[in-house]
Amino acid sequence: MTTDTGSGADRSFLFVLGSSRSDGNSELLAREAAAHLPAGVPRRWVDLNRLDLPDFQDGRHEDGHRLGEVEEELRRATVEATDVVIVSPLYWYTLSAQTKRYLDHWSGWLNVPGSDFKERMAGGTLWGVTAMAHDEHVVADGLTTALHHSAAYLRMRFGGVLTGTASRAGRIRADQAALTRARTFFQREAPLALFPYEEPAGLAV
User: Fold this and answer.
1) Dist CA 85 CA 150 (whole Å)
2) pLDDT, tens digit, for every residue of 71-123?
3) What Cα–Cα distance (Å) separates residue 21 from each residue in 2, 58, 92?
4) Which 8-state DSSP code applies to residue 5?
5) What's the rounded Cα separation, in Å, for the pair 57 and 181?
6) Going by C-beta distance under 8 Å and a sequence separation of 6 or more, which residues neighbour residue 72?
7) CA dist 122 → 37, 41, 80, 119 (Å)
8) Of 110, 105, 136, which Cα lies nearest the Cα of 121?
9) Interatomic CA distance for residues 171 and 35, integer angstroms
10) Across 15-44, average pLDDT
11) Using an 8 Å Cβ cutoff, are 135 and 128 in contact?
12) Distance (Å, whole) CA 192 – CA 148
């Protein structure tokens, strides 16, 4: 895990890299967006492909579950960030396996005694960044829905997904529209995520 530090910031960003290759197009797009954050905002980068993170084991009905050192460090990094950015290429129209495993571990963290995971995540903001081979970004709706509903369950805000078109390594640099969107991506309003069956406060009749 690497950290870009700053001082005097009310926000702190955790970028979770879920590609199977280093310096992939999704990561390059995320770094372009991060470069336009205010200088004092701390940014921490976690490459899931370099972590010895075990597959998730559902232990909700077992007693005495203890987190390994790597998993505990990742959990702490997650709850300490005000903004969590999921950086995953679009694999078969959804999140990468590495990213999905990380999110599966959230299920376990909900049940770690004393962790207060859901309470600590509430009010934070979840973002997504993805690169895909397709020009029509609507094909990433499945990925967007997965992140949005995860945010809704934890009562987080959802800032949306920054999308770009690229397949070969480094080709995201040719997507000028995506790079332009990246410059202001984290400046956008992030509303509270709500499931489709929920109504915003004050609109119920």
Assistant:
1) 13
2) 899 999 999 999 999 999 999 999 999 999 999 999 999 988 887 999 999 99
3) 17, 28, 16
4) -
5) 38
6) none
7) 22, 20, 12, 5
8) 110
9) 19
10) 95
11) no
12) 10
